[in-house]
User: Fold this.
Amino acid sequence: MNAKRTLAVMTGGGDAPGLNAVIRTIVKQGVTQLGWRVIGLEDSFDGLLETPLRIIDFDRDQVRGILTMGGTILGTTNHGDPFSFRESDGSVSDRSVEVAERLKLLGVEGLIAIGGDGSMGICSRLMKERGVPVIGVPKTIDNDIPGTEITFGFDTAAAFATEAVDRLHSTAESHERVMVLEVMGRDAGHLALASGLGGGADVILIPEIPFRWDAVLGKLMRRRAFKRHFSIVVVAEGAKPEGGSVTEHMNADGRKSHGGIGFLVADEIARRTGLETRCTVLGHLQRGGTPTPRDRVLASRMGHHAVELARRGEWGRMVAMRANRMDSVELSWLLTQTARQLSLDDDAISTARALGIVFGDEAQ
Assistant:
């Protein structure tokens, strides 16, 4: 073991605004305040499994100026599972034992993993099956990780999606069109609800509420009858019609992904009503850009709490926000949970309904 306590930090899964703020806090507190060694693994576990190793031996200067930066200076990947590692020849192998061995050779006491539900599941397995001490920091713009009331990246994505709704209003009204905006939200509608309610949408379609076409079309036609010749529909990528299934599309690498429901909704509206309809898909624009002040603060607080958990030796836990205070939950508990969805009695949903926004389950 090195004379100094050594921590490793990595980012996994899709990027989100605020990742660099977490890294910055871990390095500044760990290296400057506590005198530890902090190393970063590049591109999730890839940097640890490649030869030569791709790691960063952090000092304070290397994290200067990154608080306001989107993305992650460590890089990330959606294919970073060492239990099913994709080799350069396309084959898949279990290299989780190597992860544990190389961390040990580097003198790493424990790993702080910043990622979504997939990354948290992988790290829980690494601790249980390979003995790697891990602390998780939750990240997703979808805001659907169980155990924490909010994740960093959500506020920035919601602000951008709301701005998109604002912009669509002016062009929709000018051309008297129905504008459909598809936002991320594979399993939960937090982002669609926030941007739709904040931007004044007329219809919001979310995974938690399978929608009926007659309810959606009825809202649009009523607006038309009241001389409102344009409408805004916000739809989460995981939304689906009643009795239907989630819309998927095939990626260039042959993998299926959620998405495409926006075009389906737009086409169906145009076909059934004759209204001129257009669809905009925000896609990965929601992941990029400068994090909002709220996300910078939340990410910094989560990074600090992760270091405190490591300092106390409380491994196997994920940082969580509860009642605006930092807490933690067992990583193993997360494996038994599903995505944190919107509660149907959420007062944001009742507020939206009071404003006349339709979710597609209303009686006609």
